[in-house]
Write a structure and sequence with these properties.
By secondary structure, this protein is an all-alpha fold. It is built from eight helices and no strands. The chain has helices spanning 7-19, 25-46, 51-61, 64-73, 100-122, 128-142, 149-171, 176-207.
Length: 213
């Protein structure tokens, strides 16, 4: 068997071929041919092609990346640009940052408490502050990839649903039990939903795997 057909040599040459991907095919073939000759000469000098012999010769050659860098930066390939190193990962968009789920949760809880308090105290349903909180939440969640489509819909509909439920509560609020139970159930249910949505979004933010949109 030809020494360059050894499995370790084949793997090495395959890796080197990928590292030389930016060279023109004739130049790449020339570099690979030179490397094969060097490997054959090294193994011939050792008088064998055992795994230990092959590993020693390849170690003397350097890693495929080192050989490729030398090919790009020396000799007739000097004018060719070396492959650019992998750059830093792009920063996530603002609405995909890890602090966004927590901020959205705080705004939602404030919105729910404000709706409940306003209705209980003054029998009013909608205020300018509630609308502002809803707009901010809708913008953050709607432009983020940390929530599923269902999660986005639930976040956007939460305050309107709370307002409707509290309005219904006003109609039956003449009963003392209903006047206490309805706001309590709304707050507990809303907080439970917010926590579930927030935990799922924070998990995606922590793993750096936002949903594709």
């Amino acid at each position: 068997m030809n020494s360059t057909q050894h499995r370790l040599v084949s793997t090495y040459l395959d890796d080197l071929t990928r590292a030389l991907a930016d060279l023109a095919p004739p130049d790449r073939a020339e570099v690979l041919a030179g490397v094969r000759e060097h490997i054959e000469a090294g193994l011939a000098a050792r008088g064998g092609a055992s795994d230990a012999d092959v590993s020693a010769v390849l170690a003397e050659m350097g890693t495929p990346e080192e050989v490729a860098r030398e090919a790009y930066s020396t000799g007739q390939y000097a004018e060719r640009p070396a492959p650019l190193p992998a750059g830093p990962q792009t920063q996530p968009r603002l609405s995909d940052r890890s602090w966004v789920p927590g901020l959205v949760a705080i705004l939602q809880v404030l919105g729910v408490l404000l709706v409940v308090t306003t209705v209980v105290v003054s029998a009013a349903v909608i205020t300018g502050v509630q609308i502002l909180l809803w707009i901010v939440v809708a913008l953050l969640v709607g432009t983020s990839r940390l929530w599923t489509a269902q999660g986005i819909l639930l976040h956007i509909l939460l305050l309107p649903i709370v307002i409707v439920l509290m309005w219904v509560g006003v109609l039956v609020g003449q009963h003392m039990v209903a006047a206490i139970m309805v706001p309590s159930a709304i707050v507990i249910g809303s907080v439970w939903l917010i926590i579930r949505l927030t935990v799922a979004a924070q998990r995606r933010a922590a793993t750096g795997q936002p949903l594709s949109r």
